[in-house]
Structure formats: C-alpha cells, structure tokens
Amino acid sequence: MKDLKTNLWGIDLGGTKVEGAVLESASFPQVLFRHRLPTESSQGYEHILGQIKQMVDHMESSLGYLPAKIGIATPGTRNTKTATMRNCNTTCLNGRMLKEDLEKLLGMEVCMANDANCFAVAEANMGIVKEKCPDARVVFGVIMGTGVGGGVVVDGKVINGLHGIGGEWGHNILDASYGDLCYCGKMGCVEKVLAGPALEKYYSNLGGSPKKMKEIYESYTLGRDEPAKKTIQRMIHFFGMALSVVVNILDPDVIVIGGGLGNIDLLYTEGRVSLQNYIFNDRVFDTPMLRPKLGDSAGVFGAAFLTNVQVENQQINLL
Ligand SMILES: [Zn+2]
What is the pTM for the complete model shown? Predict the structure, then answer.
C-alpha cells in the first residue's frame, strides 16, 4: 500500500547500476516499486547525480508522492568531518559532498551508508536473520569477495561510527609479514590476505596455474592439488584469526557471510573451528553463521531501511 508515513525509499548506487526500490513498511517489507538504470559512471559525477534524480522522478511518478527522506547505499564511505566521499571504486565520487549535493538536488533528507553496511541492514531486517534468528539484536554482516568489508547492525540500525568506518574489519591488520600494500596505505590488511584476488595470487605464487577462488576450492575438494590445499588452509586459518577480533569485541548474536567466498562450505565448518580457537571464550562457540538470502537486492533494500524512523527511535531509547 502506498503510504507516505510508512513506505521506505532506497537507492543502491553501484558502479554499473543505479537501483531504486520502495518497500511498503519496516514491519511488512513488500516491494512496491523496483527499477534499474545504468550508472554510466565514466560520464562523471554530475551525470551520476542526474541518473539518481531520474530514478527519484521515476519513483515519484509511480508512487504519486515524494518522501521526506531517502536511503542511499554507496561504494566507499563518507568522511563525517569533511562531508566528502572516500574509498569509492567509482572514483569520481571521491572528494565529493555526495549527501549534501543530493539533498539539494532531490529536496529531501538523504540517509547514507556504504554497501556492506546496507547488506547487513537488509539481511538483519528482512533477510536471513529475520527468518532464522528473529530475536537477534547484534548482527555482524561479513562481505568476502573481491574485497573484504562488513557492517554492524544493532536493533535493526547500522552503526556507521564517529568516523564513518564502523564495521570495516577488512582493514584490520592481520599479517603484516605478507601481502602487498593495500590501497588504504597499510600492509597486511585482512582484505590483502582473505579477499578472492589475494588468495588467488597466493595460489599462483605456490606454482598453481592462475585460477579463480571457486576453481581453487573445487580443485582442493578433488584432493590432488597441493597449492590448492595450502591456499584453503590459509583461508581457514586467517578467517578464524581475522573474525575473532570482531567477535571478541562485539560478540554478535549472529554472523551473516556474503560475497563470493561466503559460498565456500568449509567456512561454516572448519572456519568455525578456526574462529573458536582464537576467541576468548570458555564454552562452545555457538553463534549462528548464516548465508545471506537477499543476493544482489540487499543493497537497495538496506538503503531503504536506513530511513526507518521507528528503528532510530528504538536506538535512542536504548541509549
Ligand atoms: Zn587496507
């Protein structure tokens, strides 16, 4: 049902597509509207703003009204002090005051979070967490794919953090003795050890012919590929070590593992054992580790949930 007060509007700003969605309400997140446009990021910053405006116009003509606020999932994060974007792989966004520019252009409040945070928000509010662990309050969403990221969600609300870097476990230092310089300027980040490309490079350095992680894993399961065995063992070992840092601090009620590497079964068995070995805990580690449910849609749905006033109020009461 179209309802100005309860509908949630969101946009996922990706490198190749701008996706818009309107959900009926936080308690009944039925999709009322969904549409995609190409980002055409090579045409520059102003063009991207124009594509977002075009999407909002389209949403307005479909729904028949404009909301007071909209959520936007972005690549990279916003520096809360300078109000500018950083670490976006759509590089023309970096250094730009995206939130302010969009608020001016759209005439509404913009709630922003990066795509990993939106992934966690969506899975927590309407995805696998809602389905399997509806009472969970603290959710850690992990992305392990071409990069490593994450998002912390408490009572349905994302923790962006004072500097806007909440959940960025991918740039914790893990193994400074190995790995290339990370784009963040440090050596040995989790991302430089555990992302797909890092493990693929490790495999080929051991003499394996260049392969994608999926093939390396298949090769490992067949049992005759020594470099594949070493690569998978490395992944399991460092997965536990890297995630233990997060678990020791947050002790989340549930962990959701997204991204291409999240499909590797072993993470949920041997990866769990590895994690258990590194955390500060005197009983069985029984935190549910779940595969996500929403796929590609998590970005846009999570963006929509950023605007959920009710959740914000709950958070204020908690504090
Ligand atoms: Zn880094």
Answer: 0.92
